[in-house]
Structures are given as structure tokens and as C-alpha cells.
Amino acid sequence: MLDRSNFVFLVVPCSLEELEPLLEHLKLNKPGPHDDKQSIVFSRGTIMSGGRLDLCKQVVGPQGIQPLLNAMKQSSVINRLLLGNNIVGLPGAQAISQYIRFNTDSNIDTWYIAGNHFDSECISLICDALATDTKVKALWLKRNPILASGIVHIAQMLATNQYLQTLDLLNTGLLDEGCEILFNAFKSNHNLKHLYMDTNGLTVKSGHI
Fold this sequence. Notes:
This protein is α/β, with parallel strands linked by helices. The chain contains 7 helices and 8 strands, in the order αβββαβαβαβαβαβα.
């Protein structure tokens, strides 16, 4: 039997050429589908009803995120970006934070950016942009290595953000330390309605917070 235990599987980002059909559609502000039975499917990405742009597991990568966000600025259709598992890393965090901070006409109220190699530094950029934001109501961050050091930035954001309603921190390495930091932030935030934080190595200690 083949031993796969020492194999290294490399994820190769898609080319800009593969993204181009989607980007062109967004730049021209073409309409979206009326229902999910008529979803508009591209070589990379799918536009679904309700303004959802699904790019999960499409390997947009660090080079593709800025062209994508630039194109999205021209579209009045997209209001939910599903960008899970796209390894955009620090360049992605920088681009997303700039989009949130400076795109005053943004329609994006949901950022599903799970599994994108976002660490504490990346999260600090995004949280700084969200500190006084009044557009984003859902932030999905599952499977990013945020750790307790990154939760510090999320806690600071929650102290001033009065609009965010959904926060997903599933499997982000909080541990008890991060949980305590997070829950202390809720003392000054009464707007968050939905919190997901499964699979974070929490113990009985967190149950007493």
C-alpha cells in the first residue's frame, strides 16, 4: 500500500485568465440570476440569487483577490462574498480591509472568508476597518489561525462596532485565553446576535466565564 503520510500537497492559485470571465461580468454590472436554478456559472466562481458570489475553494490566491475586489466595486448586484478556502493570506487581508474602509458605496454585508491563512496580523487589518463600519453584518472566519493573539483585535473591534450581528470563529485556536478575551468584549457590545465558536480547545474554565 502506498504510504501517503509524508506527501506534501501543493495548492496552486488559479490564473487571472481563469477569473477574467467573472471579472468582466462584474465590471459591466450585469444582472444576476432570478433564482438558484439559473445561477450564472463561470470558469471560476458562481453568481447565485440574493446577490451571492460563491468563490469557495476556487483558489483565487493572493494575486487574484485585488482584481476581484476591484471588479466588485462596479457591481450593484453582489452583496455577499463567499471566499472560503482561497489561501489569500496577508495580501487578501490588506485588500479586504481597504475595500471595507474606503469603498463607501459597498453593498457587501456578508464576508465569508474562512480558511484563508489569516493570522493575528491579518485579522488586525480587517478589524481596524470594521471598527466603526455600518455595512457588514456577518463575518465568517472559521478555520483561520487567529489564536488568542488575534482575538485581541476582534475584541477591540467589538468594543466600537455597533452593527455586526454574526461572528463565526469556529476552529480558530481560541483556547480558554481567547475565549475570556472575547467574552469580556461582550460587556460593551450588545448588538451581536449569533456567535459560532465550536472546536476551539475550550475547557471547563471557559464554561465559567
